[in-house]
Write a structure and sequence with these properties.
Elements: H1 21-33, H2 35-39, H3 54-62, H4 68-79, H5 81-89, H6 102-118, H7 121-134, H8 136-140, H9 155-164, H10 169-180, H11 182-190, H12 203-217
Helix pairs in contact: 1-4, 1-6, 3-4, 5-6, 7-10, 7-12, 9-10, 11-12
C-alpha cells in the first residue's frame, strides 16, 4: 500500500509538548491519508479494525517500518495525548473512549482548519471570549438573573445573558455566540484539562482559551 506524505512532517526535538493548531492539522492530515497504516499499528497488527488507539500510535512511531515523516506524525499524537483526545472526542461532545475512527480524524481536521484561521471561527471565538473575560461577573450571574456569583459560568448562564437578562448588546451577543456554538464553549471548558469537560468555565479557563485563540488566529 502506498504511503502518502502530506507536507513537511518534521518535528524537532523539544516541540512535542507545544502542540499548535497548524501542527495538529498537518499531522492529522497525515493520519487520515495513511489511515490503514495507523489502523494496523504500522502493519504490526494482523488486521485493521477501523480504529486507531494510542498503542497504534506508539507502534507506528517506534516499532513499525513506516516512512520517517509518518512516524513523526504518530509520535506527535503519542507525545501530545491531549491532541489525540481532541480527535477522539470531537464528534461526541468531547467524551472520549480512546478510539479514533477515520470520521473522527476528518472532523478534527475540519475543526483545526477553522481554528487555524482559514474559515474564521478563531477570531470570532477570541472576540467573544474577551467579552466574557472582561465582564465575567455579569456572565457568572447569568446577566444578573442569579442571586449571587459562584465563580463558574455554564451554558444556562450563557442562555440567560443572551435571552433573559438586561445586559448590554455586546454581552448578549457573546452569550448567544457560545450558547449557539457549544463546541466553542466546550473549548473554554476543556482547554486546561486535556479537553475533559464538566460544563463549567472559570475565569482561568477563559484566559487559557484566549491565549490559545490569540496564538491560533495569528
Amino acid at each position: 500500500m502506498a504511503v502518502v506524505v502530506v507536507g513537511s512532517l518534521f518535528l524537532g526535538a523539544g516541540t512535542a509538548s507545544a502542540a499548535s493548531c497548524p501542527e495538529s492539522r498537518r499531522y492529522a492530515t497525515a493520519v487520515e491519508a495513511n489511515f490503514h497504516l495507523f489502523d494496523t499499528g504500522g502493519y504490526t497488527r494482523p488486521q485493521a479494525d477501523g480504529l486507531v488507539d494510542m498503542e497504534d500510535m506508539r507502534r507506528v512511531a517506534y516499532e513499525g517500518s513506516a516512512l520517517s515523516q509518518v512516524r513523526e506524525a504518530a509520535r506527535y499524537f503519542y507525545e501530545n495525548p491531549a491532541e489525540f483526545r481532541h480527535m477522539d472526542g470531537i464528534r461526541d461532545g468531547w467524551r472520549t473512549d480512546g478510539l479514533v475512527t477515520r470520521d473522527d480524524v476528518n472532523a478534527a481536521i475540519d475543526y483545526w482548519t477553522n481554528e487555524c484561521g482559514e474559515s474564521g471561527n478563531c477570531p470570532t471565538s477570541r472576540h467573544n471570549a474577551t467579552v466574557v473575560r472582561n465582564n465575567f461577573h455579569a456572565f457568572d450571574t447569568g446577566g444578573y438573573t442569579r442571586p449571587q456569583a459562584d465563580g463558574l459560568v455554564d451554558m444556562e448562564d450563557m442562555r440567560r445573558i443572551a435571552y433573559g437578562g438586561a445586559a448590554p448588546y455586546e454581552l448578549r451577543e457573546a452569550g448567544r455566540y457560545f450558547y449557539e456554538h457549544p463546541a466553542e464553549f466546550r473549548h473554554m471548558d476543556g482547554i486546561r484539562d486535556g479537553w475533559r469537560t464538566d460544563g463549567l468555565v472559570i475565569r482561568d479557563d477563559v484566559d487559557a482559551a484566549l491565549q490559545y485563540w490569540a496564538n491560533e488566529c495569528g
